């Protein structure tokens, strides 16, 4: 299922999409599959699977801890295709990954295997379109979406070049710095969305920091998607056991889904 279909559905319903992020293999391989099913059952429209990496310089402490746990349990890059295949078909499944992991696996090979597993596309936070020729070719060959990031520091020229290379949606990184749940949403996010919208008709997803339905409703007032990651990871990090984490995730996702529908 492609991302375009999910956004067509949410637009027809007059609301923003809810995008949920979780590292594949966390808290365990099987439980990451269960967690994705929980998110979809409780209202997530798109899923981002993080690809655990040993040097996650753009991730905050929660995502770093989750990635470390997955890697310590023996997670391998190829297992992201196992998770994708297990959950694909209900909503679009994207992988969010540092680019050198894809290069190490083989760009065309990764695109081929991910497509075969039912994946929709990649979010590549540390890859800029100027250096993405191999990925653009592979994503075209295997009909995958490609999501690049814009940030508050992006110039108009950079925003225009970035959105021109995107397919599916544009990821608006609404705060500068690493990922992590925050008490309030970014004051610069509405302006970043406005600036980005001037250059594209693609949906714009807003990420970094959302932890409640109230914040989701606020962002849904100007963004086409609300992206939630660290708060989802914290459902497990802050729970005594995995079943309790599953329960917290169900409650959080339902709250977020209600928020984007206000």
From TrEMBL:
<feature type="active site" description="Proton acceptor">
    <location>
        <position position="59"/>
    </location>
</feature>
<comment type="function">
    <text>The alpha subunit is responsible for the aldol cleavage of indoleglycerol phosphate to indole and glyceraldehyde 3-phosphate.</text>
</comment>
<comment type="similarity">
    <text>Belongs to the TrpA family.</text>
</comment>
<protein>
    <recommendedName>
        <fullName>Tryptophan synthase alpha chain</fullName>
        <ecNumber>4.2.1.20</ecNumber>
    </recommendedName>
</protein>
<comment type="pathway">
    <text>Amino-acid biosynthesis; L-tryptophan biosynthesis; L-tryptophan from chorismate: step 5/5.</text>
</comment>
<feature type="active site" description="Proton acceptor">
    <location>
        <position position="48"/>
    </location>
</feature>
<dbReference type="Pfam" id="PF00290">
    <property type="entry name" value="Trp_syntA"/>
</dbReference>
<keyword id="KW-0456">Lyase</keyword>
<keyword id="KW-0028">Amino-acid biosynthesis</keyword>
<keyword id="KW-0822">Tryptophan biosynthesis</keyword>
<comment type="subunit">
    <text>Tetramer of two alpha and two beta chains.</text>
</comment>
<dbReference type="InterPro" id="IPR011060">
    <property type="entry name" value="RibuloseP-bd_barrel"/>
</dbReference>
<keyword id="KW-0057">Aromatic amino acid biosynthesis</keyword>
<dbReference type="InterPro" id="IPR002028">
    <property type="entry name" value="Trp_synthase_suA"/>
</dbReference>
<dbReference type="InterPro" id="IPR013785">
    <property type="entry name" value="Aldolase_TIM"/>
</dbReference>
<dbReference type="InterPro" id="IPR018204">
    <property type="entry name" value="Trp_synthase_alpha_AS"/>
</dbReference>
């Amino acid at each position: 299922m492609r991302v375009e279909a999910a956004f067509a559905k949410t637009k027809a319903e007059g609301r923003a999409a809810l995008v949920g992020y979780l590292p594949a293999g966390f808290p365990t391989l099987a439980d990451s599959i269960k967690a994705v099913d929980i998110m979809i059952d409780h209202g997530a429209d798109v899923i981002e699977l993080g690809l655990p990496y040993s040097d996650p310089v753009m991730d905050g402490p929660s995502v770093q801890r989750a990635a470390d746990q997955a890697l310590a349990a023996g997670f391998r890059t190829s297992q992201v295709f196992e998770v994708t295949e297990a959950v694909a078909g209900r909503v679009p499944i994207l992988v969010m990954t540092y680019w050198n992991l894809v290069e190490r696996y083989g760009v065309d090979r990764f695109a081929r295997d991910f497509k075969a597993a039912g994946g929709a596309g990649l979010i590549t936070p540390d890859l800029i379109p100027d250096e993405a020729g191999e990925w653009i070719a592979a994503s075209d060959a295997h009909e995958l979406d490609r999501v690049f990031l814009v940030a508050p520091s992006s110039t108009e020229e950079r925003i225009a070049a970035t959105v021109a290379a995107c397919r599916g949606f544009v990821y608006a990184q609404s705060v500068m710095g690493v990922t992590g749940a925050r008490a309030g949403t970014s004051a610069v996010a509405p302006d970043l969305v406005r600036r980005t919208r001037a250059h594209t008709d693609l949906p714009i997803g807003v990420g970094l920091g959302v932890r409640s339905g109230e914040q989701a409703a606020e962002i849904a007032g100007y963004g086409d998607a609300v992206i939630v990651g660290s708060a989802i990871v914290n459902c497990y990090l802050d729970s005594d056991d995995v079943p309790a984490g599953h329960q917290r995730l169900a409650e959080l996702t339902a709250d977020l889904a209600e928020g984007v529908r206000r």
